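Repro:
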Amino acid sequence: MSRVLDVYLHEHLVGKLSQDTYGRLQFQYDKDYAESPFALAISLSMPIQLEPYEDSYTRAFFSGLLPDDIARHRLARFLGISEKNSFALLEIIGGECAGALSLYPEGETLILPKEEDIDILDNNKLREILDLLKRRPLLAGQDNLRLSLAGAQDKIAVTIIEGSIALVKGTTPTSHILKPLIEDIKDSVHNEYFCLALARLMNIETPEAEIHWLGDTPYFLVKRYDRKIVSGKGINRLHQEDLCQALGILPELKYEREGGPSIASTLELLQKYSLQPAVDRIAFIQRVIFNFLIGNADAHGKNYSLLYTDRLPILAPAYDLLCTTIYPNLSNKMAMRIGGKYDPNTVFLRHWHQLVPDTTAAKKVLNKDLIKISKDCLNYAHTLKESLKGKGIFSPIFEDICQVIKKRSEHIVGQF
């Protein structure tokens, strides 16, 4: 006998996610929803149709709503569930996911947000939450908290009420993501903050972010780009999906060398589906260059997303920017190849040229971007480091990142 979850997009019932006795997943759009002229597909990989989507498509998309890697393993172990059982995990934590999807047991009435669902956290409560998060990923199973976030690191979705951090329960949407220090990744908070701030200086669209302190311990607070605060109406969810979901690729295959999205497949996807294909293709190439320069080898298919502000998606703001190169325990191989190369030390101009059409004009534009972005990134990195120091924000990590950028920038500019 199948188990069933109702799937909502905003407040609309869009379909049902079911799991049979063999563990196979199936998703079927609701007939009334599918026949509505305003219906929006939940994914580019699952266009609206009345026939059900079988396991391969369904699993790739819905598994992508869950944490991955070690975070998923720890979550499943805490809940006493197999980490491969996406349905059971979503049944417990699928109430507030990335984007505008919510999953609830079949037939359960969708309850509107209530004031009592908000729990303001003082420093003592927040300290308890951050300590608990180390043992209970996403705080799963606690007091009607049904929050799910993709990614490999421990984090929690929260909202900000008059400057205070609050946990939310029930159907109340969250507005921010709180990221504590990553174990075994030295000063991850300052690393991500610096890279995100640098991207913003480079005119790369990013969400707003701040470093906060709890005693001597920093944490990172990022405003959700898939949420919009509407005056007088609270927080609205915006639908989104990452590249793996959009391309129908399982999250565990997020790296290109394992079958995940590539630069070419991403550019093709943007050309075919984006509301602004030319703008987004340029922006994506610029982010590839930026990630190369800052030494972010983990810019895989789940660290790029599409955001639905209309019926067609646009490239979502950049997120999860981290200089991984400075950590000797992490792989230096890039998540996506540049001209067939995973090793950044073997990427030369001829490899960059393979990312664009084989025309003189296209290569000329790319050359201009490579030189400008390389020089600007190095200059802005040093300016940012000094600026943050003046604001009392300092970490030895900043200089380490600057040195990586200097080496990568000189490598690129030296070829012209």
